[in-house]
Amino acid sequence: MVSRVRYTESHEWIRWEEGENIGTVGITDHAQDLLGDLVFVELPKIGAVLAQGQEAGVVESVKAASDVYAPVSGKVIKQNEVLDQSPGVVNQSAEQEGWLYQIEITHPDELEKLLDQKNYLAAVG
After folding, report:
1. CATH among 2.40.50.100, 3.30.450.20, 1.10.230.10, 1.10.10.10 for 3-107
2. Own/partner pairs for 5-10, CB < 8 Å, 24+ apart?
3. Looking at the whole model, is its pTM more than 0.70?
C-alpha cells in the first residue's frame, strides 16, 4: 500500500492508503506554527456526515481560535482521543501523532482537487 497525502488551502491535510476509502485528517505543521500553543481542540462527532469544505471542528491556541474544514466529503469514524487531554500533541507532531479524526471518504474524486505537498508549500511561501 502506498500512502498519499493532499492539502487544502485552508491548511488541512488528509492521508490515505491507495485503494482505501479511509482518510486521516489534521492541520498542517504550518497552521499549528501560526496558531502557537494549542489549548483546546473540538473534533467532529463520530457519525457526523461532512461535505467537502464544511466546518468540522475548531482548534484554539493562546493566540486565536481557528475553524478546521473537511478536506473531502465523508462520515467521521474515529477521533484522536489523545487530544482531549493533550491538545499540544498537535504542536509537537501536527502531521503524524497530532491527527484530528478519520473519515470514510464518500467522494474519492475530491482528493484529486486538493494540493500536493509541492503546491501546498508554494502556496504558503
Report:
1. 2.40.50.100
2. 5/95, 5/117, 6/71, 6/111, 6/114, 6/115, 6/116, 7/71, 7/114, 7/115, 7/116, 7/117, 7/119, 7/120, 8/69, 8/71, 8/114, 8/115, 9/115, 9/123, 10/69
3. yes
Cell reading at 76: 467521521
> Residue 18: its pLDDT value, please?
87
Helix (H) or strand (E) holding 61: strand 55-61
Three-state DSSP state, 34: helix
pLDDT tens string 10-31? 999 999 998 899 999 999 999 9
Residues comprising the chain, all counted: 125
* Interval 64-68 mean pLDDT: 95
Tens-place pLDDT, residues 106-121: 999 999 999 999 999 9
Residue 15's Cβ-count burial label (10 Å; 0-12, 13-18, 19+) is: middle
